[in-house]
Amino acid sequence: MGPFKGNKVWFSCPNCRPSVHAVPEAGQFPVSYTIEKLLRMLRRTSLASTPPSAEKDTAEPAHSPGTRPGEKGQTYLNDKVRSLLEKQEAKILAAIHNCQKVKAQLNQYETTVRGWGRQQQNRKNRLQTLVDPCIDARMLAQQEELSTSDKRQQVDQGEQQLHTLLQAVRKAASAGEAYETIVNADHVMEEQTQREEECLAMFPDVHTVTTIKKVIEVSHAALEAAATVQAAQQTAGVGGGAAGHASLPAAAASSIRDRVDVLMSQPLKICPRGAMEPARMDDKTAQLTLGRRDSREDDVQDCPMCMTVFDEIVQQRPRTLPCGHTFCTPCVNGLNVQGLVTCHNCHVVHAVPEVGHFPISFTIENLIRRMRRTLLASTPPSAEKDTAEPAHSLETRPGEKGQQGLNKKVRSLLEKQEAKILAAINNCQKVKAQLNQHETTVRGWGRQQLSLEDRLQSLVDQCNDARMLAQQEELSASDKRQQVNHGEHQLHTLLQAVRTAASGVEAYKTIEDSDHVMEEETQREKECLAMFPDVHTVTTIKKAVDADPTIDEIRTSS
């Protein structure tokens, strides 16, 4: 071929060198079938024009060096035909040798890509062991987020109840209403305290934090490993030598250990169990953690139902029910419904005795009288006068003038209850803030897990693609090997035909057939040499395979 001129390739004839011809668009000059026909006719003519005597004179004895053992039939062929057969035999033997070399290369290539496919399957399985924990960790984070949201809503609902009770405490206009409000507030605050303790015990969930943190670290390390190996492959090239590939995983692992991003950069500022206790232990709210005392038990001289002082003169005498609780006579009479009295404290139902009333507790009356005498004896008159305050000096909150009609004892209880409710509301707000922060944190964890899951899944998909590519390459190599093997069998058959040709016509036919088969086999060998190694296949699969040891090392070490 000559140089390019324009868009054409020019060819210089070796016989008449000054002549230059443009190569046709088909890429080659046409085959001269006429010349092939003439050559075949000349061969037939030369074989037909040779007299039998000449063949007999030129024939060699069977034991001569030119006659192969077991092929005595060719001793009757002339020298020309025998020479052609010997040359054809040599060409067939060379073609068979080439077939065997190509088959060996195809076998080796087929084994190699089969091994690559297995490695890709193993790597896919190992990566899947990272994807599955990612999914589990994401589900765990979602469950934790839902649980936190549920607790936050419960705390928020409790806070609303406390605000409602706070308004009721501030607006209580009678002793009965005050008592009912205090009882309800104690019950709600007890539930709220229990709910706060459950929240403090719930977050941070050590199992959730440990699992998610570990999965994030391992997943990031695996992704770093893949990125590092691919970058090194692109820099060094696929065929960089065995030494370069042997040192790559260790270098990648060293780089990864230094660069793995720990995603817990913003530590969770969750109040641990007991950290909220100081806020509860002020003077007004110490009862929240030490165990609430019932507000009705502050003074045994008062009826726990109407908050009035027991007094035998005004018929406020104490009467004890069979359950052991004591109330004033008007309150017990008010509880009497068709001869049955339900205790206001323990809700046990008692039948009214036949005498029509429960017995008076004379012991309590005696104790109250003794306590009053003791208090009067221990308090000097001057102190009583100094500490006595006029009725109008008691603290009255704006808009709550209705409480001015309550006695000092009831108002004092309401003020204490208000302080406790305010402290409980403050605790609710603290817990809600922490729950909001925890909910935001676990939601971020879930998003990180989803991102890692997608990136790891892309690596799994790459492994899948590389495995399918290796399988396709293996099938292609196997198909080519079978074709070469079939061609080799044909050549062996033709070799036997060449060695056993007994006439000129048979020899010519055998030579023609073998030429055709050898031409096909040569074309097939060229296709095989062009097929392997497929650079794209080798590059894709080898990158993935070289990344595998580092990822596996990180997965097992974690």
Automatic annotation (TrEMBL):
Going by the entry's taxonomy, the superkingdom of the source organism is recorded as Eukaryota
Per the database record, which ranges form the RING-type domain? 303-347
**SUPFAM superfamilies given in the database record:** RING/U-box
Where in this protein does the record put region Disordered?
Answer: 48-76, 378-406
Any GO molecular function:
zinc ion binding
Keywords, A to Z, come to: Metal-binding, Zinc, Zinc-finger
Extent of the signal sequence: none
Q: Which PROSITE patterns match?
A: ZF_RING_1, ZF_RING_2
Designated name of the protein: RING-type domain-containing protein
